[in-house]
Design goal:
globular; about 25% helix; binds coenzyme A; alpha+beta; about 170 residues; single chain
């Protein structure tokens, strides 16, 4: 048998309205309080602002990422709303792949830096973000509720890493 034969292939694709129930299930599996279907549908429908990606392994949805293109003055900023991978599929590079693809698509729409918030103590996520070049720039008191602080992290694109030459409104 050829090397790699039979191994499921990871595919990352844009989510559609048909995926909203699945996305809500992913949210419930990965967080105590996940985004409701109504909000996820809003993200998917507003695809000029939001990018919703699903990761599928052998056709099974195992993770997702959501980001938004925001304007800060004259600057376009990519806001990472969530990255999540089902527990049995973690530590295989799927989270990193999702974040890379999300950043690439936000960059294609003009983002020159990325922002995100993460709960204090969420070490897997913080390690992932640090590996991907994000730095901690501040503490957000009670951001996730009383006594649950957040960390604000930022990634600046380096010289030559600015917005993609090809602007892609549809990706
Ligand atoms: C954070 C999360 C998305 C990471 O997904 P993942 O697919 O396991 O991550 P990857 O396998 O791509 O790991 C990439 C890097 O992240 C870091 N990392 C991920 N999980 C880690 C862990 N448990 N401990 C330490 N570092 C970890 C490592 O640097 C890793 O690189 P390495 O494998 O070369 O060491 C996943 O743990 C998750 O879904 N958590 C619950 C949801 C959540 O909290 N999301 C973040 C919201 S802000």
């Amino acid at each position: 048998m050829a090397r790699g034969a039979g191994l499921a292939v990871l595919r990352v694709r844009k989510a559609t309205l048909r995926d909203v129930r699945l996305m809500a299930e992913l949210e419930r599996s990965c967080f105590d309080e996940g985004y409701p279907e109504s909000l996820l549908a809003y993200f998917v429908m507003n695809d000029e602002r939001f990018i919703c990606l699903l990761a599928e392994l052998g056709g099974i949805a195992v993770g997702m990422a959501i980001g938004e293109l925001e304007e800060e003055g004259l600057k376009a900023v990519g806001h990472v709303w969530t990255i999540e991978v089902l527990a049995p599929y973690r530590r295989r590079g799927i989270g990193e792949r999702l974040l890379r693809e999300l950043e690439e698509r936000l960059r294609a729409r003009g983002a020159v830096e990325f922002h995100l918030e993460v709960k204090v103590g969420n070490e897997p996520a913080i390690r992932l973000y640090e590996k991907m070049g994000y730095i901690k720039v501040g503490i957000l008191r009670d951001y996730y509720g009383p006594g649950q602080d957040g960390i604000f992290m930022v990634k600046h694109l380096g010289p030559g890493e600015g917005p993609s030459k090809w602007s892609c409104g549809a990706c």
